[in-house]
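Quick one: structure for this chain?
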Amino acid sequence: MTEGTDVSCRSAAGAKADRRIAWWLVWAYPPRFRREVGLGLVDAIEDRMRARREAGASALGARVPAILDTMRNAPAEWMATLRATLGVRLKPGTTGDGNPPHEMSGFSRTSGGRTVIDKLMQDVRYALRLWKRRPGFALVALLTLALGVGANTAMFSIVNAVLLRPLPYAHADRLVVVWGRQPGNPRSLMAYREYDALRAQNHTFDELSVFLGQSVNLTGVSEPQRLLGNFITGSLFDVLSLKPERGRLFTDAESQPGRAKTVVVISHDFWERTFNKDDGAIGATLTLNGNPLTVVGVLATPFDSRTVPADGFFLGYDVYIPAGLFPVPGGLTNAGPSMLMAGRMKSGVTLSAARADFDVITKRLEISDPKSQAGRSTNLELAHETLVGDSRTGLMLLLSAVGAVLLIACVNVSNLLLARAVDRQREIALRAALGASRLAVTRQMLVEAGLLAAVSAGVGLLLGRWSLQALTWLRPPNVPIPAEIALDQSVLLFTAGIAIVVAVLCGLAPALRTSRPDVSRVLQTGFRRGSGTGGRTRDVLVVAETALSVALLAVSGLIVQSMMALQHVNVGFDTANVFTLQFRLPPAKYPKPEDIARFFKQTIERVQAVPGVQSVALVRRVPFSGNWGDTPFVVEGRTAAAGSEPRAGQNMISPDYFRAMRIPLLRGRDFTDRDDLQSPPVVVVNQTLARTIWPDDDAVGKHIKVPESPEWLTVIGVVGDAKHRTATEPALPQLYLAHYQVPLIFSSLVARTAVPPMSIANDVRRAIWSVDKDQPVWSVASLDDIVARSHGSARFLASLLAIFSGVALALAASGIYGVMSYSVTERTHEIGIRLALGASAGRVLREVVGRGLALTSVALLIGIAGAAGLGRLARGVLFGVTPGDPATLAAAAGLLALVSLAACYIPARRAARVDPVVALAEE
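Got it. Here's what it folds into:
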């Protein structure tokens, strides 16, 4: 496509968009107006936008004036239509037939000749004058509400982006991930033969595919690189409705095992980064894992991956390679469960129907091949649920927390408005005496609250946008929060809804409490406040906000306590001063187990010579790295039905692994260099497996068999338990196989150092490249950092809850202080009389503090009950602490009690120091 053609296409698209926007704007006018002049108005709006474009304005610059014109003119046309329909006029006078104007609601005139709009505008102007008269009050109220609205806007934006918004694929609601299910593992990988059978026999899917993301080595360039590869069947492109940006995509036939073509599709980002968007990339050769692959296409990016959780799950890779080239011993068809499966359900098919369909097929597979399929079935999940399901509890807990903060802010502002309304009771009584209705007084209060809500919502929207940047910056890698979160229509509607709720919550109590004053009593009291006016309402409000604060503080305490428990849990190994990295050998260069084992031994020798390295070993899966695998095993002398064999975590390690990780050897011996391909196969088990399988006997010398080895493995040692996936998992059975006896192409390196671990990174890289100059390495990190990252979601949740509970605590303290301070001010005259009659200052102080503590006590009882309920909702994210932990609940209650005591003491001290002469003179 030439540049001129491209410009022409963009111009045509812009013109179509202008026409469509013009039609939308005309719909803002009344129906009769649209029928009479709608088409002409569309043409006029479109002509104005075209003229502005030709004058050099941008698309936004051409359309915004048209939108503003519509916002200005459409209401006038609606008013004219209402006047014509109802016989109502805006100016005083009569209708066309000489009769007085009708008295109607809405925009009609009242008996006083003023429209409701006039009255509302008068109320708004009056509210603004009150703000100007007391700017401190207005500023505190606005900031308090804006903080609450901003926090809710930011948190809802994250919840919306992660949990509510569907994945941006075509037919996203029909995309399903298929997991294998077997005893003890509801999310195992799928075998290619299972995929073949499910694809051929199912009746509920339009298309099925298998895929697996795996790093690949790019060689033949200046320096070996590690790329993110995705081995897929060509049907995945159809499942996701993906298209090529350049070239073509490979087909399903080109990706099948045994017939796979040596082709590759590259991502747009990789094309831009490596080929600088050169069309010559099509047909170029990339050497991946030692195999030359021809680039046949560039994948068109269907969306901005930075705006969706986890890159959209299926994307975010550099290269897409036919599944038949997946580097697995024996080929993909003989590899057993080694791939993920995804599909698109047919229109109208439910997930339960698809599950039932797959259950029938897996039962047929089990009948045809009971040895490998015994106990296996499938587990179908919507793709969106697979992606974000684990984060649902934490995010909803955070959203509930910011909702509580907003409620507390609303209660505080409602108390402020109520206090000011009580101050204005003489004014309200005078208005009532002069004929003002209760509705007029209530409307004035609600308009003021609504104005507060509207302005605070606007400020809160800005604060929420800024907060989003901080939240996305703080997010840990294992929480699927998009890198960029837009304030879309859903967020704007949510914020508008919050503004309405805020207006009602803030304005209702003051409006109802003061809209029907006792005119005679208020006017008789002069300018002095009536004691106790509005006191009960304020007490209820302060109890409510204190109870919410207790509940939020208690839940935050539970989460923080869980975080501390995670930090101190015994993982079974020493994480300090351990250096780690990962690498994958290209099968084309290392086709035989002997070649792989030789590379391993040479690598260990070279790295051991690096200054600062104390001990070094290879391990297939570094603990807490996200790599995990388990296997069934058979115990000599015992029988188990197919599919019901015991299972254990599995890892391949080289000698000195236990020494490098400081995992204690309890019995027997460690692996040595003599445990290689020529020696009898051996295995080391952990303490939990030994106790489970041989509770009354010594495990050393016993024999077990695993699928990876046709021979019986002899147990040569027992080691301590070590956690592998998370710090919260219980002790699980674990098998350690000798790396030199089961040499696989993927491995990791761990090295215990006498110096800071990352200081040896470059030396270790050079040591590995001295063995093979084309071998890239990645995931270079210290073990401390790896374990810390595994706690990222818990730390993120604990940090935010601590911040929100701190804000709630500050708001509760200010609320209690405000109520007690206002109560003292309201009772100044009464206190002066009591002091003049001989009451001691200490007694006054005790009474004021006692009243505050009484309110706090009621709030604590309610708040602790609420905290226990919220704790049960948070059970899924707690570790090492129960939802009703007495110590945590007591600590939260104690902290609120201390804060309340401090907030009560200051006003009480001021009350005790009241000068009776001044107090009695107050009028």
